[in-house]
Design a protein that fits this description.
- The strands form 5 sheets. Strands 1-2-3 form a 3-stranded parallel beta sheet. A 3-stranded antiparallel beta sheet has the order 4-5-8. A two-stranded antiparallel sheet has the order 6-7.
- By secondary structure, the chain is mostly helical.
- The chain has 20 helices and 12 strands.
- The N and C termini lie far apart (about 80 Å).
- The longest helix has 21 residues.
- β1, α1 and β2 form a beta-alpha-beta unit.
- Helices cover about 50% and strands about 10% of the residues.
- α16 crosses α17.
- The structure holds glutamic acid.
- The site of glutamic acid has 8 residues, from loops.
């Protein structure tokens, strides 16, 4: 293998929905691989069989595909290392653990769960660190082998060399060192024969010839353990880059309290993948000072792990919404229509959307200007599709109770009735002349018409909306609003 070849990986655990933090780590790995013309690998960390599900695996893979982070090797696409699923490699992990025992770098531990719990409690009482005290490290290897052969349950622990230090140059954090006194003899294989994350992840990184491991800073304490295992296997550790944690705008660690933190939520609520890609690239990295919007190609060209900041990155939904709005406005109309359609269908039903589609297309460019999310399209465009308008009651209460509203509705009908061409310009001219004559300001005069026509105080521009709706429907709606007022509502 070419030693300069960049090989990076993302390793989702399919025990929950893909979190934006994992998606950001995937994105940075992908950018790094593409920048260096390297290989981006997706493997599945599914050793926790009880909690891993195919649904969560699909969710992770769908999320990566949605973001456009196509992978060169790994689950689904194959490659020289099998299925890239940890559950298919249990024998390999056991073999490494046995080998480490044979070479004195690990040992069998026969302490029972009760004994370990008692040790932890005693350590806590006496104010000592809770790590394993090394009891079984003193059992002679022949005696340990005999006990194992007799079937006595044993886990495998790594024998951390003490005194000792593990240090490395983190591409983001610079020099990092861990004193081995702070690291206990950690478990590699549990007594039921299943590998821990430390063992499985490290063996995979060695076997798949990973050159750089870029992952969240929460995993920093694992890294000295992984380096020790790698070296004990006789391999050279990869480079490490620990990415800054994500925080909410309130300065607290990103969690459910900040809203939904699964990538799926953003896929489903109408964010564009390219906007999400752009926004996530900014979580710890910047393309250039003061530049918020950049293309995938620009990100690939400019990205370096060594330029990632070590300061916490703020995941701000408002900023994401703003970025999404920028991308939505820049879409060609066809794509805007394609992306908006499923959101309309979900709210209004396929048949309704089909029958009102042409009206929608007429004002779609104006809606495109005004929304930040596709999920906002149905509420802004719904009036174009429905037979009978449902009023937003807040808008009605605020705008339809004024003393001149009846006059405006009646006058508008009268003026519009005589229009030769049902076009926005003519409608506007007629209504403005009306405002002038009644002596009422545009806001006060036009807002009730907007509510009557669209059902809400927030809508695409009024004249274009009336034009798109058509003459008959416009008159029907003015009449319906007038009738509701006449009924004293
Ligand atoms: N399965 C681990 C996780 O999802 C991967 C960590 C790593 O990148 O080593 O957190």
């Amino acid at each position: 293998m070419n030693p300069d070849l960049v090989r990076v990986r993302i390793a989702p655990s399919p025990t929950g929905l893909l979190h934006v933090g994992n998606a950001r780590a995937a994105l940075f790995n992908w950018l790094f691989a593409r920048h260096h013309r390297g290989v981006f690998i997706v493997r599945i960390d599914d050793t926790d069989l009880a909690r891993s599900t195919t649904e969560f695996e699909e969710d992770a893979l769908d999320g990566l595909r949605w973001l456009g982070l196509e992978w060169d090797e790994g689950v689904g696409v194959g490659g020289p290392y099998g299925t890239y699923r940890q559950s298919d490699r249990i024998d390999r992990y056991r073999q490494v653990a046995d080998d480490l025992i044979e070479r004195g770098r690990a040992y069998a531990c026969f302490c029972t769960p009760d004994e370990l719990a008692a040790k932890r409690e005693a350590a806590q009482r006496e104010g000592r660190p809770p790590g394993y005290d090394g009891t079984c490290s003193t059992i002679a290897s022949s005696a340990a082998a005999q006990r194992r052969d007799r079937g006595e349950p044993a886990s495998t622990r790594f024998a951390v060399p003490r005194p000792g230090l593990t240090q490395f140059d983190d591409l983001v954090r610079g020099a990092v060192r861990f004193d081995h006194e702070t690291i206990d003899d950690f478990v590699l294989l549990r007594s039921d024969g299943t590998p821990t994350y430390h063992l499985a992840s490290t063996v995979d990184d060695v076997d798949y010839e990973i050159s750089h491991v870029a992952r969240g800073e929460d995993l920093l304490p694992s890294t000295p353990r992984h380096i020790m295992i790698t070296e004990a296997m006789g391999a050279v550790p990869p480079n490490y880059a620990h990415l800054p944690l994500l925080f909410g705008p309130d300065g607290r660690k990103l969690s459910k309290r900040h809203g939904d933190v699964s990538l799926r939520h953003y896929r489903q609520t109408g964010y564009l993948p390219e906007a999400m890609f752009n926004a996530m690239a900014l979580l710890g990295w910047s393309y250039a000072p003061e530049v918020t919007i950049f293309s995938r190609e620009q990100a690939v060209e400019g990205f370096e792990l060594s330029q990632v900041s070590k300061n916490p990155a703020v995941f701000d939904i408002d900023k994401l919404g703003w970025i999404n709005g920028e991308y939505m406005r820049a879409l060609p109309l066809d794509r805007f229509l394609d992306e908006a359609r499923p959101f309309l269908v979900e709210q209004l039903g396929a048949e309704t959307v089909r029958s009102g589609w042409d009206r929608f297309v007429g004002v779609a460019p104006l809606i495109q200007e005004r929304v930040r999310l596709f999920s906002e399209v149905p509420s802004m465009a719904g009036f174009l599709f429905v037979e009978t308008l449902a009023y937003d009651e807040d808008s009605w209460a605020k705008l339809m109770r004024g003393d001149q509203v009846v006059q405006v509705l009646d006058e508008a009908r009268r003026r519009l009735d005589g229009l030769e061409h049902w076009e926005p310009e003519q409608i506007e001219a007629a209504l403005r002349a009306m405002l002038e004559e009644i002596g009422i300001g545009a806001r006060k005069g036009l807002q009730p018409l907007r509510v009557a026509i669209t059902g809400s105080s927030v809508s695409p521009p009024l004249f274009e909306s009336m034009a798109a709706l058509g003459r008959d429907a416009t008159f029907d709606r003015l009449a319906a609003a007038r009738a509701r007022l006449a009924a004293g509502d």
